[in-house]
Amino acid sequence: MASSNRLISQFNPDSYSLSLDLNKKTKLFEGSLTINGSRKSKPSYRITLNQKGLRIISARIFFLEKNNKTEVEVKRIVHHSRLQELRIHTDKQITSGRYILELKYKGRVSTKGTNGFYVSRWQDKDLKNKEILTTQFETHYARQLLPCIDEPEAKAIFKLQLNLGSKDQDTILFNTEIESDKSKDSIREIEFRQTPVMSSYLLALVVGELDSIYKDLGKTKLSIYSTPDKIKSAGFALDFASKCLKLLEQKFQTPYPLDKLDLVAVPDFDAGGMENWGLITFREDLLLFSDENSTLSDKQSIALVIAHELAHQWFGNLVTMKWWDELWLNEGFANFMEYYLVNQIHPEWNILEQYLITDKNYAIRMDSLPSSRPIVNKINSPHQAVDGFDAITYEKSGSIIRMIFNILGEDKFMLGLKDYFENFSYKSASSDDLLSCWQEYSSINLKEFTRTWLYEPGLPKIEISLGNNSKQICLHQSRFLSEPKTRAGNPDVSSGALGLKPNLKKKQREFYINNLKNSLSKEDKQIWQIPISLVDLNNDSEASNDFVMKKESHSIQFKKNDSLPIKINKSGENFYITSYPEEMLTSISESLKKGSLEEGDALNILGDIIMLNRAGQFEAGSGIILELIMSAKENYGSSQFWSLTTGFIGYLHYHLKQNCQEDLLNKYINNLVVTNLNKLGFDSSKSDRSEDTMTRFELLSLASLARQEEFVKRMRHIFEISSNNLNSIDSEKRILVFYSIAKDAYQKDYDQLIESYKSNLNEIGLRDDLAYGLAMFESKDRVENNIRIMQDPELVRDQDIVSWLSQIISSGKEAKQIVLDWIMKDDGWDWLDHNLSQFDKSNAVKVITLSVFSEKELSILKKFFQNLEDIEIEKSLRESLDIAKSRINWH
Q1: Is 699 helix (H, G, I), strand (E, B) or coil?
Q2: pTM value?
């Protein structure tokens, strides 16, 4: 879609009143819409709304002046499909003032894809096909249901009457409660209460056969909905969501404003969850927890997503950003709050330490790319806004908010938010608005502090060196980049951007290169205000007090009797990378062996070193990291430590496997794992803590990766004794059992997994584990068959295609090549392009480029994607090429 002007500048709606006639059988609908609004711009001969896929039958415009209502004659109606606009032209000039628009139109429920108003399909226990009609309007898809100003700042009241056949007994859900439900002349008329003032992308409508469970929470009724066969798995979601909603009201000192909140599990759903006000929709596996088929990790994921979407009821719904360039005001907060809330409700999960090694480290990885962008980034059109839902908006923003939280302290942080909600409820706000609310409670200038963090790309690396005497340390900041050697060289390499402009003429190319050089030069001079916290094991120095580093370099002089700090960035709470000199690494190694450091500090050190290593900026090499891990395993045996270890060793293993050199690493894994696994026990017990369950899974994952002999035998035994009922396998081990069986590579096992997969399509946890097991088979015939399965809509939902693609590619070198040949030489990409949403298509690009391990492979893949000239994948391609180049250069 081309870039478009902001339509709110020429017409600002106050309310929409929609009567919608819906034929579920034909998937057709007819709308009768009244829009009240105002115009505050220079005179014009048209009013423009957003619409897509609708056919406008009639349009009338009325001008309101005092008590008079004068019709403005409509000359013609124009559908501008490229800009997704409805242009209503008049003979008479439309001046500033209040207007009423009356529209009649027709549309169709989409039977393909998961955006707009679409069909989601499922099967009941008798294998009868059923349908749910549902919506997904973020970022710019409400225009597929009704003509509107489909922009976040255009907040208005919505009133809906839905008309169905009188015999229809489906559950009907909207953002608000049903006001009346009656039958009249063979029509079922359902009228809903009007919504609060809200953005169009938060509208939601669900029509289908659903069951529910609920709790009354004072003035709010909280309900969980799903298809009838799965409602038994809704208990955890109801319990957690009720605790979460109460906690949010308490912390924000701002009540949830609606009288109901529905959480709905949708069989076909592209995102994890969508925060529609009063009617939140989810992927089934991120709302429903099955005691038989789900894992503790599944439970944690469900809790995080529920907390994220409930936080949005305030961040995004009650107060909305004005435009998509400040999306962090929604998503960064929801990312921060999800971990905060889950930690409050389930402290035994140690979820904040998990955040350090997952979200924060992923954000660092993506922000270290030359193609990274600022958090607040100019968005010219809604399709660009889709690209904004990335690690910078979510994980980096959440990390920056965590820094502010640490600076202010919890009480002042929450008081600032209370002011924010009081000042901007039912309105739109900007970054400055939020910072001003916090500023009342801060001794530092928050706008100055956040300027580089919000408005410039990248993150700092702090390099520590010892000063001229033994009691001085020097800190130096610079931008952390995954490819530092390329910055002074060819801009084509350093940005990845020239690769997307292959047809530039010579002068254009020179101009473009000069701009890139200037940009890179500017980035070299970036200076962040960085919170510095020094970790001193003896805690005996006043110089160890926290401070904000505002210059490129800073020296700290300690007294004669002071001990030097062992690290900076306590518990890794702040968003930067630290590079330590050899002398400090020696002390760090000793502290890891003795267990002198706190768990968070140990994880932060290992995480930073691993990140530096992947960027080619840790001269000691991977071997030293493996030694540090071996030294630390006795004192830092938490699940988070093992998760970080598994990620690093898995990365090494995948690289080495490309050249069949993984055997030596397998021996290391066996030495690392055996003692700890024997101590913890191979099998779970009733006395297990959450920590034991998560640690055991990480240890077994490593044993699985190394094909540890005893482990392989036990996995085979479990599979064989459970062959008649694979669902009976412990859900915490099941995926590892299937992985091990796949690596044995027996045809009979593959056939059994297929049969079980086809029989358990409605058992979410089991189905996904079986899919993973099938994808791990590496031989040519099975890989080709897996590609056929992936393309069968009866076996794989569109939302799961990228997951299948990723797993098949990662299963082995031969499998990778088969998939690449299918994509580039057959019709694979055409098929993906046709079946994936823009968001999933971008993810597919990332998955495919993960297969690149040489310059030759990179060149081939780069040329293929460039020839597509697809604007929807440009951003994803830039990032993916940067990551691929970094991986090729890594050693």
Answers
A1: helix
A2: 0.93
The β-bridge partners of 463 are 476, 579
Q: What are phi and psi of 646, to 5 degrees?
A: -60, -40
pLDDT tens sequence across 633-644: 989 989 999 999
Show the tokens assigned to 372. 């990274």
Distance of CA 357 to the CA centre of its chain: 16
Task: For 85-154, give the DSSP string.
Answer: EEEEEEEEEE-SEEEEEEEEEEEE-BSSSSSEEEEEEEE-TT--EEEEEEEE-TTTTGGGTS-B--STT-
**Mean pLDDT on 579-596:** 92
Catalytic residue among 275, 284, 309, 338: 309
Give the separation between CA 549 and CA 26, rounded to whole angstroms: 64
C-alpha angle 480-482-486 in degrees, rounded to nearest 5: 100
Which residues, including other chains, have CB under 8 Å from residue 650's CB and lie 6 or more apart?
705
The 10s digit of each residue's pLDDT in 30-54 is 999 999 999 988 999 999 999 999 9
The answer to whether 720 and 744 have CB atoms below 8 angstroms apart is: no
Query: What is the predicted pLDDT for the residue at 539?
Result: 67
Q: Give first-to-last CA distance, the chain, whole Å.
A: 41
Considering only CA atoms, which of 689, 629, 481, 453 is closest in space to residue 550? 453
Alpha helical stretches, state H, 633-725: 639-658, 663-680, 690-706, 709-721
DSSP H helical ranges for 457-615? 491-495, 506-524, 582-594, 599-614
Encode pLDDT of 309-339 as tens digits. 999 999 999 999 999 999 999 999 999 999 9
- For 254-319, the three-class secondary structure string (H helix, E strand, C coil) is CCCCCCEEEEEEECCCCCCEECCCCEEEEEHHHCCCCCCCCCHHHHHHHHHHHHHHHHHCCECCCE
The H-assigned helical ranges of 440-571 are 446-455, 491-495, 506-524
Order of all β-strands in the sheet with 460-466: 553-557, 472-479, 460-466, 577-579
Asked if pLDDT for residue 823 goes beyond 80, the answer is yes
Give 731-779 pLDDT, tens digit per residue: 999 999 999 999 999 999 999 999 999 999 999 899 999 999 999 999 9
Phi and psi at residue 423, to the nearest 5° = -80, -30
More confident residue, 213 or 270: 213
Query: What per-residue confidence (pLDDT) applies to 878?
Result: 92
Q: Are 3 and 381 in contact (CB under 8 A)?
A: yes
**What's the CA gap between 264 and 287, in Å, rounded?**
8
Q: How far apart are CA 332 and CA 308, in angstroms?
A: 10
Q: Exposed, middle or buried by CB within 10 Å (0-12, 13-18, 19+), for 405?
A: middle
Identify the top-confidence range among 470-479, 481-490, 649-658: 470-479
Radius of gyration from C-alpha coordinates of the chain: 28
Q: Evaluate the omega torsion of the peptide bond into residue 135 and state whether it is cis, within 30 degrees of 0.
A: no
- As to burial, measured by CB atoms within 10 angstroms (0-12 exposed, 13-18 middle, 19+ buried), residue 513 is middle
Comparing CA positions, the residue from 449, 713, 474 lying closest to residue 575 is: 449
Task: Give the list of residues 6+ apart from residue 539 with CB closer than 8 angstroms, or none.
Answer: none
Mean pLDDT score, 416-424: 98
Please answer whether residues 434 and 426 qualify as being in contact, where contact means their C-beta atoms are separated by less than 8 angstroms.
Answer: no
**In which residue are the tokens 């059992």 written?**
737
Residue 389, token pair as written in the block: 């839902």
Let me know if 309 is a catalytic residue: yes
Three-state SS annotation for 220-253: EEEEEEECHHHHHHCHHHHHHHHHHHHHHHHHHC
Q: Say how far apart CA 31 and CA 18 lie, in whole Å.
A: 7
**Higher confidence at residue 143 or residue 525?**
143
Q: How many CA atoms lie within 13 A of 410 on its CB side?
A: 5
Q: What are 206's strand-pairing partners?
A: 173
Q: How confident is the model at residue 540 (pLDDT cuts 50, 70, 90)?
A: low
Which pair of tokens denotes residue 251? 């912390």
